[in-house]
UniProtKB/TrEMBL annotation:
This is Zinc metalloprotease. It holds the Pfam family Peptidase_M50. Keywords: Hydrolase, Membrane, Metalloprotease, Protease, Transmembrane, Transmembrane helix, Zinc. CDD domains: S2P-M50_PDZ_RseP-like. The chain crosses the membrane at residues 6-28, 108-132, 296-315, 351-369.
Length: 376
């Protein structure tokens, strides 16, 4: 299978379409929050674009030029006084109007509005999902078999859909354990056991009874990876909650996600600075995201809602990173001015922002290349 065939197999037209819709909506709401935070303080917004690149439709309404651009991969707002003024001589100068005249906290309010909007959307989407479908309680020390492939080795051994694995090779699955420096759920022992040659025993619960299947296993056959023929995941139950409980759980989910997201971004930057293109489960780029959405699109609407919540959560946290060029970086520069009791000069801020923007572009290129490398 060549590179393009591999991508075509991983990405479906429906998945690509839903990816664009989710990203466009997340970006639109992000920029709309910046827009309203500026307008509420009397700062004009010169333009608001849905999409990037060449403009194919524009209309001026209430002082703002509203645009539709050709590339459906984001959007932007042009807030008066945020970009430099360019004179007739072509020389850029510090603006003295609009955003530039605001105090530090007025600027922070505009910059903070976008990420907060994405976190709010994640909160609402998660809360709606929990209210409609209940709260999943994961049992990481159990591995439930969701599907057994017909005529596979697993089917011949007697595995069935719904079996809940509680022990492997006579050892009960732990709730958590450290593997290669990372904390993982005990249910992931299934994969590690199947990478080891020799006799294995799987103890599981079926219909309230405990049973054990013992078999000899060879991870590779003829140079190819052997497949047992089961699809599995951490066991979970569903707890029904009211509306208040659903949104309380959504809040707890977002708070608990903070260290995981920071760890994922830290791992990404570590790999970026060492040019480590190996895959991990942390941050997915546009191709990886489209692949995830392609899989989710076949599972139903609520799965897409959870994906949309995750994308908004990631977008909100990413934009809060203190990297110049991102909202968090701009906020950092404003706060540095507060601590110095005088703002950075226009030249200083422009230089730092340009460097940060360059870093973000290189990071984006790294993520895309790493995404594509899985198909080579």
């Amino acid at each position: 299978m060549n590179f393009f065939q591999a991508i075509a197999q991983a990405l479906t037209p429906q998945g690509i379409l839903w990816t664009l819709v989710i990203i466009l909506l997340a970006t639109f709401m992000h920029e709309l929050a910046h827009f309203w935070a500026a307008r509420l303080q009397g700062v004009p917004v010169n333009s608001f674009s849905v999409g990037m690149g060449p403009i194919f439709w524009r209309r001026r309404w209430r002082g703002t030029e509203w645009r539709l651009s050709a590339l459906p991969i984001g959007g932007y707002v042009e807030i008066d006084g945020m970009a430099p003024d360019v004179g007739t001589d072509g020389v850029a100068d510090a603006p003295k109007h609009g955003y530039a005249l605001l105090g530090a906290w007025g600027k922070v309010a505009i910059l903070l509005a976008g990420p907060i909007m994405n976190l709010l959307l994640a909160f609402l989407l998660l809360g709606g999902n929990f209210a409609a479908n209940g709260v999943p309680d994961v049992q990481a020390n159990r591995a439930v078999i969701n599907r057994v492939v017909p005529a596979s080795r697993a089917a011949q051994l007697g595995f069935r859909s719904g079996d809940t694995v509680t022990a492997i090779d006579g050892q009960a699955l732990p709730v958590q354990e450290r593997v290669n420096g990372e904390e993982v759920g005990g249910w992931t022992r299934v994969q590690r056991a199947l990478s080891v040659q020799g006799p294995h025993s799987f103890t599981f619960e079926r219909g309230g009874k405990t049973q054990t299947i013992t078999f000899d296993w060879t991870p590779t056959v003829g140079g190819k990876r052997a497949i047992l023929g089961i699809e599995y995941g951490a066991a979970s139950s569903v707890r029904r909650v009211g509306l208040g409980g659903a949104f309380a759980e959504a809040g707890r989910t977002i708070v608990s996600a903070v260290p995981q997201v920071l760890k994922a971004f830290g791992n990404l930057f570590s790999r970026f600075f060492t040019l480590n293109f190996t895959q991990d489960q942390g941050v997915a780029g546009p191709v990886g995201t489209a692949q995830i959405v392609s899989q989710a699109a076949s599972l139903g609407g609520w799965t897409l809602v959870l994906i949309a919540a995750t994308i908004n959560l990631s977008l909100g946290f990413f934009n809060l990173l203190p990297i110049p060029g991102l909202d968090g970086g701009r906020i950092l520069l404003v706060l540095v001015g507060v601590l110095r009791r005088r703002p950075l000069t226009f030249a200083q801020e422009s230089a730092v922002t340009a460097a940060g923007f360059g870093l973000v572009m290189l990071l984006s290129l790294f993520v895309v290349i790493r995404d594509l490398s899985r198909f080579f």
